[in-house]
Amino acid sequence: MTGRSRVALVVGGASGIGLAVAQRLVADGAFVVVADRDATALRSAALRASRDGSPIETHVVDVTNEAGVCALVAGVVDRYGSLDAACNSAGIVGAQQPLVSTELADWRAVLDVDLTGLFLCLREEVRAMTSAGGGSIVNMASVASFVGSSGMCAYAAAKHGVLGLTRVAAREAIVSGVRVNAVAPGMTDTPMVQLEMAQSPEWAARALSAHPIGRAASADEIAEVVAWLLSPRASYVVGACVTADGGFTIGGV
Known about the structure:
Blueprint: E1 7-11, H1 16-27, E2 31-36, H2 39-49, E3 56-60, H3 66-80, E4 85-88, H4 104-132, E5 135-140, H5 153-173, E6 178-185, E7 188-189, H6 191-199, H7 201-209, E8 217-218, H8 219-230, E9 241-244
Helix pairs in contact: 1-8, 3-4, 4-5, 6-7
């Protein structure tokens, strides 16, 4: 860790936006710990995120497991003395189906990962940073935090919840020097979205047409926003949700 200015944790960092965030933080000179539930993808992420030879640490964690999340964050602090920055990017979309067709098990599966899992990570990160006197956290919200997306009741509910949770945590934690913010991406070219597009081309066409910019974001574009919020350059930004959505939430025609 020689010369590293910060210790950063990226949860859900084995692919997509999380991986891009890990890569960006490595490029910024942070020592990065990447956690995900997919052990195989984590091994690949370790190689991709450390392209310049900078080491990163990987951990398998299920964000719905409270003991596992607590051990992850405590372990980072024990090994490196602090946790300076964290990005909570773990999430799933779940089955796309109308509200009236949504089974309780499907609802719970999405809420458990996207909201309860984020709560567990956020709680432990705030605790660790409060003890150390400060830090910065970014939660991954979505344009679904602002709109009603047909066929995605659980995902939309979870992402609306992420926004509320971010604001509460921001108000409570800033007195201890911990900044909490969120990023709300629009359609982003990630493996998860590519799978959704392949399964439902009609949905993909509608989603893309709702973005005035006319294309999906790259994961790197979203990572740039996250990296800025995590950095001292955003020192006066507290409780914000930065939309990086190609104009999706502008509305209108």
